[in-house]
Specification:
13-stranded parallel sheet; 8 helices; globular; eleven-stranded parallel sheet
Length: 459
């Protein structure tokens, strides 16, 4: 028998100790999921049995598994009743969220903020502003979820790195899947149908992350994405024309390979820059897409009834249908099977080399979990502000609620009062909708969010 090094023995002992202390907590109908999360220790599993749970669940501990138990065809249902903002909100690293049905939330079905090494799998989300929304995280998996009826993106990966979005179904959303200001993202084998647009790979100005690069869109079924855009007029998503398979907006190093595009009425693929799309320029953002590769896709009956403003472009070209539309400002773009594709603006793209492929990339995730310290209270406050507060409050303009400038003036020097109001808001003005209570975040986190808003927040 080989001698095991002392360091390895120590590691094994640590693992055994952690495993021994991990517990499985059970939640049944009529009980509180949040109460179990509050009781849980890092590494614990929380099993939730079928029933209706009318609450928001906030997870700020490490390596918590929140698992819905399916019995007799029924899953546990989180129901926001049209009043609560978020279904599950997680900032703890290593979180796993699986097996839930989620409906009736005004903001997000499932959201992670600043969490690394997360897994969001086998959930069903019905309605909301975003269905599944991981943000500011590294090394994530979003797989085998079903999302419908969302008024922005069914799956929205924001300002993140090394994320796989695999085997999901999204339908009747404004956008099926969006990767915004992200790096190293794999969107593979998703079934995206009957949305306004199936996939958007975007670089949006004015955000803290100033680039978007190395996204792979591969082996997706992109069918009948012609739903009328129903996004709120104030959102950028409202500018996306319906009938689009894949929109590449300003992003770099995007590969679109081996997808099936069928019956998308405006175009299978649109590539454009931020200025042509009508977004203001950010001095720290390059507005032009580059290194787009369109490889070995299947195009059937796309671009035959383009929506405004694309219809005028197609009409001026004299074409009866169009598969690919480019703004003409792409740099280092290439395409295969040019003779079989109808295009506008992609005539300057080179022919891709026969050897070019994305299949050398098996996954966008890291080979090993990212080693990360738990978030500090200050980090939680900033991330919760970005993830929760900015959904309704812009900095210096009115969105759904008053601006942050107005809130800072009203509560100057009174952070505890602001936190108390956020926990249990009372509607005092008829010109604003009722604010969802945020008490699930806990006093400590709410006090830090309030302190950040009043003392540190700048435009």
């Amino acid at each position: 028998m080989k001698q095991i090094p002392t360091l390895a023995l120590s590691a094994l002992a640590l693992f055994a100790a952690t495993a021994a202390h991990a517990e499985t907590l059970t939640v049944s109908a009529g009980q509180s999921i949040q109460a179990a999360v509050t009781k849980a220790k890092p590494g614990d599993v929380i099993e939730v049995h079928p029933g209706v749970y009318r609450e928001t669940v906030f997870i700020d501990k490490e390596n918590i598994t929140l698992r819905g138990v399916r019995k007799a065809g029924e899953s546990p249902l989180l129901d926001g009743g049209g009043k609560l903002n978020d279904g599950v909100l997680a900032s703890g690293h290593g979180v796993v969220i699986s097996g839930f049905s989620i409906r009736g939330f005004k903001g997000n079905g499932i959201m992670t903020q600043g969490a690394n090494n997360y897994k969001i799998i086998d959930n069903f989300v019905d309605g909301g502003f975003y269905g599944i929304f991981p943000q500011y995280g590294t090394n994530g998996l979003v797989a085998r979820n079903r999302i419908r009826g969302v008024e922005d993106a069914g799956i929205y990966v924001g300002m993140s790195d090394n994320v796989d979005v695999i085997g999901n179904e999204a339908w009747e959303n404004v956008i099926g899947v969006e990767s915004e200001n992200c790096r190293n993202i794999l969107l593979e084998s998703n079934y995206l149908h009957d949305n306004s647009a199936a996939i958007a790979v975007t670089l949006i100005p004015g955000l803290p992350v100033k680039d978007a690069s190395h996204s792979t869109v591969r082996k997706n079924f992109i069918v009948n994405n012609n739903l009328k855009n129903f996004a709120p007029p104030s959102s950028i998503a409202a500018s996306v024309p319906s009938g689009v398979g894949v929109l590449v907006l300003g992003a770099k190093h995007s590969t679109i390979e081996d997808n099936q595009f069928v019956n998308n009425s405006t175009a299978a693929i649109i590539s454009t820059d931020l200025l042509s799309f009508g977004l203001g320029n950010d001095g720290k953002v390059d507005p032009y897409p580059d290194h787009i590769r369109v490889l070995a896709n299947s195009f059937v009956n796309n671009g035959r009834k383009p929506k405004k403003p694309i219809d005028e472009v197609v009409k001026a070209s004299g074409l009866k249908h169009v598969d690919i539309i480019g703004s003409g400002k792409e740099r280092e773009a290439c395409i295969t099977d040019r003779a079989a594709i109808t295009e506008i603006g992609a005539n300057r793209w080179r022919d891709c080399a026969p050897s070019e492929t994305s299949y050398t990339v098996k996954t966008a995730q890291l080979a090993e979990p990212l080693k990360t310290d738990p978030l500090t209270l200050e980090q939680k406050g900033r991330l919760i502000y970005l993830g929760v507060c900015t959904g309704c409050h812009a900095y210096n303009t009115q969105l759904h609620g008053p601006s942050m400038v107005a809130i800072k003036a009203l509560y100057a020097g009174r952070s505890k009062d602001l936190a108390k109001f956020a926990a249990a808001p009372v509607r005092t003005r008829k010109d604003f909708p009722e604010m969802p209570p945020q008490g699930y975040l806990g006093d400590e986190v709410l006090n830090e969010v309030a302190r950040y808003i009043l003392n540190d927040l700048k435009n």
